[in-house]
Amino acid sequence: MTGERDAWRDIAEAMLDVRLSDRDEQLVSRDGLDDVDIDQVVRVMQSLRAWHETDRRMAEASRRYMKLNATDMRAVRFLIAARNQDKSVTPGQLADFLGISSASTTKLLDRLERGGHVVRAPHPTDRRALVISVSDDTGIVARESVGRQHARRFAAAAALSPDEREVVIRFLDALTATEADSA
């Protein structure tokens, strides 16, 4: 099994090397790049893929631990952020943030309330509305799981010099812009 896993890993790593995945340079020009440069770019891409996989595994572990799906977890994190800023959140605001319908939001809130993750209460100034808040227990659990992960990520970024952080920011912003370029 280990040998088979290593073979799959080799194939996955090769997918990131343009010398193998785009031999004829139909998509990626390698003008001005020697093999050392390309090796380094491939290592960047491999590190990015490894980070992506690590982030996915950590998010999945947090969701499993808290017994939440991805949308539920986004809702809980949003409600925690709102609470940390002393802001009230209505079901409509939560629906807007999540990009889901009011019917889906009602189902989500019913599920989260049954699980003890959120509390519904009357809006303090609008008698027709409700406000949603994260329960104290869920806030504690989220801080111990997601919060601790974020703290480690923050520490990794803080350990970089200001110039290094600017390089990372430029790189990540350029990656983000590739989505707009492909539309």
From TrEMBL:
Gene3D superfamilies reported in the protein's UniProt record: Winged helix-like DNA-binding domain superfamily/Winged helix DNA-binding domain (1.10.10.10)
Looking up SUPFAM superfamilies in the UniProt record yields: Winged helix' DNA-binding domain
Residue ranges of every copy of the HTH marR-type domain listed in the record: 38-177
Please give the InterPro entries that the UniProt record associates with this protein.
Answer: HTH_MarR-typ, MarR/SlyA-like, WH-like_DNA-bd_sf, WH_DNA-bd_sf
Q: Which PANTHER family match?
A: HTH-TYPE TRANSCRIPTIONAL REPRESSOR YETL, TRANSCRIPTIONAL REGULATOR, MARR FAMILY
Mind telling me what this protein is named?
MarR family winged helix-turn-helix transcriptional regulator
The source organism is Agromyces humatus
